Amino acid sequence: MTTSNMSMSTDTPRAFPKNFLWGAATAAYQIEGAAAGDGRGPSVWDDLCKQPGRIWEGHTGDVACDHYHRWREDVALMREIGLQAYRFSISWPRVIPGGTGASNEKGLAFYDRLIDALLAAGIQPWVTLNHWDYPLALHRRGGWLNPESPHWFSEYTELVAKRHGDRVAGWFTHNEPQCFIGVGLQEGRHAPGLRLGISDVLAAAHHTLLAHGLSVQALRARARRDARIGWAPIAHVHVPATDSAADVAAAKRACFTIESDFMKNNTWWSDPVYLGRYPDDGLARFAPHLPKITDADMRTICQPLDFCGLNIYTAERLVRDSGDGGGRAVTVPEPPGFPMTHMRGTVHPESLYHGARFFHERYKLPVLITENGISCADWIALDGRVHDPNRIDFLARYLREFSRAGRDGVPVAGYFHWSLLDNFEWAQGFQHRFGLVHVDMQTQKRTLKDSARWYSEIIRTNGGGL
Ligand code: IFM
């Protein structure tokens, strides 16, 4: 999007395939609260939140949206919106307080109640196993650096799959591994707040990929046979500056080329998972720092998956071909005044089109948007409602682009809006509001935003109103 095509409107029909799944997502630490309730153990995020200066204004997830106690009301809101699926994460230290060993019956029972209420409301439960609230006890044993860590994750998966697997419709192993490894272990801005060197970061990343593979095996063995299984990495999408074939090819190459910012390398994370090998350019770049990687490891990591999950909010860069026959990608800065979100992210609806296309072309799976949304400066207006026209416009633009990908041949499987509720935005505390539902953090009062009512209509018409 440029500032000059903001009023774009065409008559192209935008409905999605019949079985397209409409949902919204959350994560345990961002909404549950009850941090020490009913036997939950501490996570690395509880620990980071206690450290002065780490989180904006000293906010914590101790109470968050108090969803642990208000889940009934939240399921009723989901029903009112008309969600077909709800993606939530299970808090590992709530169900196994020490990370391994004894489980916590009260924690497991909480997720039983939530899953049953969702099913009773006609909403499919989709579970993320790791959305960053890693057990502190395991971090103290080396965390993802410990070669045993993939087995800890598999043990946790087995417990959850055995307990809830008869009812859960879909599973995600990790959410955004690039963030909990890159921002948590390399940059130190997120929990556990480490600043490790590249060799350690690569070892930890390899262990998270092994954990993914073992976890998928455990899910296949224990979960419902028709459950859909995948993961939810963030997609760093480069978009072409124009629709010319050369620029599109340059953007695609940029998406799948290894670059110096480790965290932003799509192929380092996704090639092993979908193709069973690390990319050659990455192996060359990181050669002096690589952990031991065996063929057996790669076989474990590369398990058959049912969809290609993508968290997409923005585009990395606008790219054009160098035009000199060398095939170099040249980045083009966004023009002054380019649209930005409250979180200072650029608004690039076409990232959903090109992201879906590029990832499908490379990995050949149906594309499921596992997160997409916008933080806006939302508040309760004098009329008692929450008017969020920017979110509605943002979603309409992004969904149109996703629908365009579908019309151009990408199997588009579904869309999870981030987020259902305004919530705890990690190191940025409660300063950002991503929800379809406004949450007053003092009173816990929930108010459906205008966008929630708009989204209801989009769901009802399967995108026909776009
Ligand atoms: O809130 C986060 C979420 O936990 C992971 N993906 C991005 C969201 C918005 O920043």
Written account of the structure:
The protein has 466 residues and is of the alpha/beta class. It has one domain: Alpha-Beta Barrel (TIM Barrel). It contains 16 helices and 13 strands. It has helices at 28-31, 44-50, 67-81, 92-95, 105-120, 136-139, 149-164, 177-186, 198-222, 245-255, 266-275, 280-285, 295-301, 350-363, 389-407, 450-460, and strands spanning 21-25, 85-89, 124-130, 170-175, 228-232, 237-240, 308-311, 315-321, 329-332, 367-371, 412-418, 437-439, 446-448. The strands form 3 sheets. An 8-stranded parallel beta sheet has the order 5-4-3-2-1-11-10-7. Strands 6-8-9 form a 3-stranded mixed beta sheet. Strands 12-13 form a two-stranded antiparallel ribbon. A hairpin with a 7-residue loop joins strand 8 (315-321) and strand 9. The two termini are 17 Å apart. 53% of the residues are buried. The structure holds 5-hydroxymethyl-3,4-dihydroxypiperidine. 5-hydroxymethyl-3,4-dihydroxypiperidine binds at residues 27, 30, 176, 311, 371, 418, 425, 434.
The assigned CATH architecture is: Alpha-Beta Barrel
Q: Helix/strand/pairing class, anyone?
A: alpha/beta
Largest sheet: 8 strands, parallel
Report the span from N to C terminus: 17 Å
Which small-molecule ligands are present, each listed once? 5-hydroxymethyl-3,4-dihydroxypiperidine
**Strands, total number:** 13
Question: Portion of residues in helices?
Answer: 25-40%
| CATH level 4 superfamily | Glycosidases
Oligomer: single chain
Number of domains: 1
How much β-strand is present in the residues?
A: 5-15%
At the fold tier of CATH, the topology name is: TIM Barrel
The CATH class is Alpha Beta
